Amino acid sequence: MEKHINTKCLYGNQKNKHNDPTGAISTPIYQTATFAHPAVGQSTGYDYSRVQNPTREQLEHIMTALENGNDTVAFSSGMAAIQACMELFEPGDHILSSDDLYGGSVRLFDHINRKNGLEIDYIDTSDLLNIEKSIKSNTKAIYIETPTNPMMQVTDLRAVAKICKKYQLLLIVDNTFLTPYYQNPISLGADIVLHSGTKFLGGHNDTLAGFLVTANEQLSERIRFVVKTIGTGLAPFDSWLILRGIKTLALRMECQQKNALVIVDWLTKHPKVKEVYYVGLPSHPGYHTNLNQATGFGSMISFRVDQKETAVALLEQVKLIQYAESLGGVESLITYPMLQTHADLPKEKQEEKGITDTLLRFSVGIEHVDDLIADLAQALEIQ
Fold first, then answer.
1. What CATH topology corresponds to 249-382?
2. Among 50, 107, 162, 244, the one annotated catalytic
3. Which residue in 84, 120, 293, 376 is a FRET match for 140, CA 20 to 30 A apart?
4. How do residues 89-143 score in pLDDT, each as one tens digit?
5. Strand 139-145 relative to strand 170-174: parallel, antiparallel, unpaired?
6. Is 274 a catalytic residue?
7. Cα separation, 323 vs 316, whole angstroms
8. Which residue in the list 102, 122, 181, 278 is annotated as catalytic?
């Protein structure tokens, strides 16, 4: 019988079973670089922690179950996972990507992957006709964030999966914002699902991690060869921290979304807030698409204030909410994309996407919503 996702967060698709003879409830941290062989030609199943480690293996099992995948590889960061994914391609290959991406992904694509011979075009992937007309003879994959960072655009994953199947392309989906608790891209037709595990999966702003979840064995073998070769697998202690974080994923996601819905309603009524970007708003252009492919809206909000001075005052005057990069943790964080997450984008690209000096991104945490609203209210009144 298929387990509920709350149960999968603890056990994956099996009972509390891992490679420890003591019956420890918490997966042990196997802090070892190497493993002894019982005899010549024999192995315990583990040889060297760069290749596999029991703590990391349990985490990968949990992630595979959560995303309904075939296999998962855990990496030292989200960026390491993206780069490993890009190693699937050859010089001259063409990739279509969402044009509203985390700035670090754009930096990697433009300054590392292009140098290595990949051809990358950015398009509005919410426009299906635009996708199809942008496919070329050397196109190998479509890379999507949904919702996007920071403008919260939504792409119809089922429809894009059909296009990918038609043209024999890989569909790669960054599922960091909604997590497998709210969205399962592989079930919608994706070939690879990517996560920055640093964010909601870890949930405590205390470690870095990344994941690639694959839909089939062939992709799994190729990615495992990459991680074995370049050595970017997640360390045992960090694997344990993410395992611990995932145990409360369902509880945190529900609490954070509940807070976000109340805060969005408050923001839309504030005179200094001019626009609110949240996929849970019925007025959001991707609202119905998101409803059809996800079970929730998450807790990421972007909003635009009336002037730069208001944005700066809010960032400097919040007391409970912290002005910091990153997202998805139990602590609420507010970010200035033009100076932080998207600082490396050329000015004209920032403006084209609406990433201006009045745009703020808010990762809603688990604090009491009344305290969060009170903090926003006092900070907005100062300017």
1. Aspartate Aminotransferase, domain 1 (3.90.1150)
2. 50
3. 293
4. 999 999 999 999 999 999 999 999 999 999 999 999 999 999 999 999 999 999 9
5. parallel
6. no
7. 8
8. 102
